[in-house]
Every structure is written in structure tokens, then in C-alpha cells.
Amino acid sequence: MASAFVCLRHISAGVLAVFALTCSARAEDLAVVGTGDGIEMLQAVATAYNADAGGVRVSVPPSIGSGGAVAAVGGERQKLGRIARPLTEAEKGQGLIEVPLIRIPSAIFVHRDVGVASLTSAQAAAIFSGTIENWSAVGGADLKIRVVRREDTDSTLAVLRSSMPGWRDLVLTSRSKTATTTQDAIETVRQTPGAIGFGPFSPALVGDLAVLSIDGNAPRDPAYPSAVTLALIYKAATRDAAASDFLAFATSDRARHLLAERGGAPLKP
Q1: Both 185 and 241 in a single domain?
Q2: Which domain holds residue 47?
Q3: Which InterPro entries match (predicted)?
Q4: Which residues face 234 on adjacent strands?
Q5: Tell me, what DSSP letter sits at residue 201?
Q6: CA proximity to 234, closest of 84, 76, 90
Q7: How many structural domains is the chain composed of?
Q8: N or C: which end of the chain has fewer CB within 10 A?
Q9: What is the mean pLDDT of each run of 10 residues along the chain (269 residues)?
Q10: pTM here?
Q11: Does the residue 6 lie in any domain?
Q12: Alpha helices in the chain (DSSP H)
């Protein structure tokens, strides 16, 4: 009898282990892949969703860019993606559908040691073009300016070109470092004395970095001109119950409140 009890105990432990592994696999069911713009905001929404959800856990992994989201969802490798640029007509023709969530201001930020809190739009353009090379020229420290840029297809750069005075045809200096993701740009500026970069605004930027006012307007001021729109994308052919449930939550009043708390302007679908 004791032997049978031991055997049953081991079988029960094995069943529990298998059950735990199954639950662990189910806990990673739905990843929302894509842009780094607004990633902290969407992670907060996912955390709130996961606290109330049943079997499916939503994750917001590190950036693979808006193009990566389009490729992953369009290629039916993922069910949901996140983008910070509008879908093209060709992408819509592939069956992709976008759900705008929030307007996120584009921020220009610098290493804390540069001693500058604001620039004119003309000064910002001159710095990123390489015409101004030292922070002392704009009232800052006697320190070489180190420009951190993004690739030409970056969503924040596209918004700056379309809205920031002097940026439409701006040729960015060749003496710059190209960051491949938003997080890369932030970390490079944070770690490099004299550095300046740009990306989507988030309250998390304030701390080790200084977020600049442009022409007297901070990023969240109504007169600040540049912003990106963060949207979720999916294909009707692969949208399942879990994806539908998270889409409904992400566009709910509760999610809009979470997004607004983190510096964005929520959009009603």
C-alpha cells in the first residue's frame, strides 16, 4: 500500500509538472510586435489586461520596427502588430487593418550635461545638419555636439520632416550615429556626453535625459507641431478570439486612461 501511495504521489507530481508547463506555454500566447514608439505605454496596457485576463497572456516585446510588424502580421507569423506610421495602400491590399490608439509627440532629447533646456526650430535644424557643432553656440556647455539619428524610414523622422520647421529637406549630418530602434537612440544619448537625438515622447525620458522645448513649446503643449500615431494592426484572416479580446481592451476607456497618464493623447476608434 505504501508503495502504491509513493507511486501515486510521483504520478501526481508528474501530472502537475506537465500542467505547469502547459500553463506556461499558454501564458505566452499573444505577442504584439513592432515599433518602439510608445512601447512603455502599450506595455502598461498589456500589464493591466493580463491582470484581468484568463488563459492568454499578452506581451509587448522589444522593437522590430513598424516594418517588422507589417512583415510579421502580413506574413501571418503574428496575429497583432504595432506601427507608428500609416499603412500603405499596398499593405492594406494584403489584408492588413489598422486600429489607431494614441497620438505621441515627437521629442528631441539631449544628454543632461549639455546645459540646454530649449532650442528654436532653426537651431535644432542647424544642429542636426551639422552647421552648429558645439553646445556653447546655443547657450550650453563648451562641449562637442554628437548627433544620434534614425534610419530614413523611421516614423519619428518622417513626422519631423512633415511638421517641424526647417526639416522637410534637411540633410542630416554625416558625422552622426544611426540608431536602429527607439531604445537604441535613447540609450546612446543617455550614455554619450554631448549627444542629441529624437524619438517618441514618454515621461520615462525625463530623468537621465533632458527633453527640449522647441520654439517655447514642450512636447505635450498643444502648439508643439510633431507627433506620431501609434496603431495596432491585424489581418481578418488570422484575428482570433484572443486578438479580438485584447483589441477591445486596448480601445476601452480604461486603456485610454492608462495611455493618457503616460504622456499620449488617446484616439477614439
Answers
A1: no
A2: 2-102+230-266
A3: PBP_domain (IPR024370), Phosphate_ABC_transporter (IPR050811)
A4: 97
A5: -
A6: 76
A7: 2
A8: N
A9: 41 36 50 92 95 88 93 97 94 97 92 96 97 98 97 87 92 95 93 95 84 93 84 97 96 94 80
A10: 0.66
A11: yes
A12: 2-26, 39-52, 65-74, 89-93, 121-129, 155-163, 182-191, 241-250, 253-261
